[in-house]
Specification:
This protein is α/β, with parallel strands linked by helices. It has a domain at 63-132: 2-Layer Sandwich (Nucleotidyltransferase, domain 5). Helix content is 31%, strand content 15%. It has 3 helices and 5 strands; from the N terminus they run αβββαβαβ. It has helices at residues 17-35, 85-95, 111-123; strands spanning 63-67, 73-75, 78-80, 101-105, 128-132. It has a 5-stranded mixed sheet, covered by helices on one side. A hairpin with a 5-residue loop joins β1 (63-67) and β2 (73-75). The longest helix is centred in the first third of the chain and has 19 residues, at 17-35. 9% of the residues are buried.
Length: 137
């Protein structure tokens, strides 16, 4: 009987080149797409106070939207539902079209409601600024 010569040199090899090509393509894709992402923040710094004749004249008084710790919303002192804040502001802006919105927020209020009101104002072109509510003594 004839013995077969088995070669131990014939072992299966995994070709890594296609896998490395795919990894490099994915790496380039994620690097390129990550550079286009920009995070925007909300500037909470108040404008500098101005005194003297160089100061611009003040416009109409702002529409004050207050949000207390219990998530109650008030527009110029009138209690309003969160869904109806934009309608209430539009009523006030119909009387004084150049008035801005001042969002006065309590520290204990829900962040989601603040962002919802902020987004509604921004989507409708209403200028809005935000400040912390004064502490009740």
């Amino acid at each position: 009987m004839r013995q077969r010569n088995r070669r131990r040199d014939d072992q299966a090899e995994v070709n890594m080149t296609p896998m490395l090509d795919i990894v490099f393509i994915l790496l380039i894709f994620f690097i390129v797409t990550a550079t286009f992402l920009s995070e925007e923040g909300v500037d909470l710094r108040p404008p500098p106070e101005c005194e003297g004749p160089q100061c611009p004249t003040t416009g109409p008084p702002p529409i004050v939207v207050q949000l207390d710790a219990d998530d109650n919303v008030f527009v110029n002192g009138d209690r309003t539902d969160v869904e109806r804040v934009l309608a209430a502001i539009n009523r006030h802006r119909a009387e004084q079209p150049d008035s801005a919105v001042l969002l006065e927020v309590d520290d204990e209020s829900s962040h989601g409601i603040v962002v919802r009101i902020w987004d509604d104002m921004g989507a409708n072109g209403v200028p809005v600024s935000i400040q912390r509510a004064r502490a009740q003594e």
